[in-house]
Amino acid sequence: MSDLARFEFFITVVSVILTLALVAKYLRLPTSVAFIGGGICMVALPWVPNITIDPDLILVMFLPPLLMSGAYFTVWSSFRENLLGILQLAVGAVFFTTLIVGVVTHFLVPSLPWSVCFALGAILAPPDAVAAKSVLTQVKLPERLTTLMEGESLLNDASSLVIYRVAISSFLTGTFSIVHATISFAVLSIGGLLLGGVLAYFFILILRRISDPLIVICLTLLGPWMAYIIGDRIGVSGVMATVTMGLMFGWRQHDIFGARTRVEAGSFWALLIFLMEALIFVTIGLGLRSVFSMGGNLFATKTALFTAVAGVILATIVARFLWVYAAVIVSKLVSKIFKLNWTFSHDEWKHATIIGWTGMRGVVSLAVALSTPSNMPGREFVLLCAFVLILITVVGQGTTLGVLIRCLGIKDAQDDKNSLLNIAQARLKMASAQREEIEKLAISPTGKVLHPRLLEQYRFRENAIKRYNEQPSVFQPEKEAHYQTLLKIVAKGREELLKLHKAGRIHDSVVRQLEYELDLQEMSAEVSHR
User: Fold this and answer.
1) Of 375, 377, 391, nearest in space to 291 by CA
2) What pLDDT shows up at residue 40?
3) pLDDT band at 488, cuts 50/70/90?
4) How much is the pLDDT for 93?
5) How many secondary structure helices (H) and strands (E) does the chain include?
6) What is the pLDDT of residue 212?
7) SS (H, E, C) 417-483
8) For the chain, how big is the Rg over CA atoms in Å?
9) Which H or E run contains 36?
10) What pLDDT, on the 0 to 100 scale, is given for residue 210?
11) Residues paired with 449 in a beta bridge
């Protein structure tokens, strides 16, 4: 296949992706489900080529930006408060699932070495950040649950990749040392944490001194790849380094990015992440072409192969439920025995069920499975299990998560947020602070009003927000009418601008500048209307 043909196929795939995104939105499906389904359908078309991609390239190309984006938008305060729960899932659940899957695999396929069985467990253990985000954006959950699952998906890749490395090393060398494995895990994790912190510190120093949005955006794109690649080269966790950098960027974003940079970077990263997530899941769907012929010589019949795969998949899913339920029991026992002041939700068991069900796998499981040594016994079986688990969890669990939430009666509880200001209340605080500041600036020491229009504008704004907060239902029609009037005013300005341009009375550069101003006015009206 020529390079030109590859590019043409890429354009075709992007066109399919956009169509699938619209279909998913119309049918209210997780986009990951639509993209995988589209990839599966494309496999049946005779003109679709059989494209193979280096699995290491998949990890390096897609994983760092996706991890950076997820970490950047993590709510730092919630992440810190729920760090223990996140680590229970990101480390504990991964180790436990690896152990269960390894034992079950060896029981079902005794001819496989223990090292290969545990390598398979490490491959299947971590829920994926991309898959989790794709599904969680479609449902409403209590903030604590969302924080736990998103935080887990950011950190569990580091745990699984360390276990996988140890298992493959044991297969290649024929030896295993629990001490060596523990030291390796500590070095990789702590080293990645330190590397990410150091790189983030230097990037922040540089970014604070650059005002050009284009260069800043390029640096934010370069950062995650640098952290991941450098970490991999020096023998520490590139995943941990990337996540640490993303968390620090998100924490310091208000200090290092200007208003224009935040707006432009937000649009750029939204487009980049959308395309990357879509390409990953379409690639998973396309990969099914080779799955149909997998199985190897380990099994005498297709029935035996099906039984083994089903057993491994079931063990992977059940292990997660066992861990989260056990974590609830142990936490309550520890709190009771040691008389700790831990608080538990009345819906703790329901929450555990939701966490157990949101174990969607994705790009990491796929890429690591593809990167297994070609001479490893049972490699095709490992690949088959990875593909089937991704399909079952993304399509099966992803599409039924909303139904499960409704059946359990879980809502986006506001109890945890009672101590926090909502948007309207925070907006009033801002308006009051702005009004106080303009009163200082608009009135001279002699009492002369220097900026009467600004003073009137900000006083009116504070009063309007205050009235709306006191009686939102009464003033909602007035707010809606105000919004629609603003849109009509902007539309009239745009109409006059285009009329002048068509008449040849203004230059194209003037049109672009003035239309940009109109766009900002329209966007400002839309944001205020929320």
Assistant:
1) 391
2) 84
3) very high
4) 95
5) 23, 0
6) 92
7) HCCCCCHHHHHHHHHHHHHHHHHHHHECCCCCECCHHHHHHHHHHHHHHHHHHHCHHHHHHHHHHHH
8) 27
9) helix 31-43
10) 92
11) 443
